[in-house]
Write a structure and sequence with these properties.
The protein starts with 5 loop residues before the first helix and ends in a 16-residue tail after the last helix. It is mostly helical. The protein has one domain. α1 runs antiparallel to α5 and α2 runs parallel beside α5. The longest helix has 32 residues.
């Protein structure tokens, strides 16, 4: 049976997830730029979409990190203001959303950083790879065939 190198698959998965993450960031950045440049020209449908995206990301980050609101310096009044209907939003609220979006992107980047492996792990990985280089199936460790 052929040995499968899952590390390559894992690296490809990590790379594709990072690409998806950055594509999402690009979309959100374009939304923020659009809000800044022409806030008065957005129709209700566009504003509703932007607000739904923001709320969804806020909810996702809240599930990842329970201390999100303290990191964003959000009070209960500000949170209820962000959850209010779009009709009640003013220019200051949109600017606050842009600031929070930038901070959320930073927090997301911090949370998604992959920790480096410890040197002891690297030594153990090298030992295991050397040990399994000539591994035979259905034979006890250390036993050799009787040719």
């Amino acid at each position: 049976m052929v040995k499968i190198n899952y590390s390559k698959v894992e690296m490809a998965l990590i790379k594709s997830l990072n690409n998806m993450f950055f594509e999402n960031l690009e979309n959100l950045a374009s939304i923020a730029i659009e809000i800044q440049s022409r806030n008065n020209h957005l129709n209700m449908k566009e504003m509703d979409f932007i607000l739904k995206e923001f709320r969804a990301d806020l909810k996702k980050l809240k599930n990842i990190d329970s201390q999100l609101y303290t990191q964003l310096n959000l009070t209960l009044d500000q949170e209820t203001r962000l959850l209010s209907p779009i009709k009640d939003f003013k220019k200051a609220d949109w600017l606050r959303i842009i600031e929070l979006r930038d901070r959320m992107v930073e927090i997301k980047a911090e949370k998604t950083k992959k920790p480096d492996t410890a040197p002891e792990d690297e030594v153990q990985i090298a030992q295991e790879r050397q040990e399994h280089k000539n591994k035979r199936f259905n034979v006890r460790k250390g036993w050799l065939p009787l040719h």
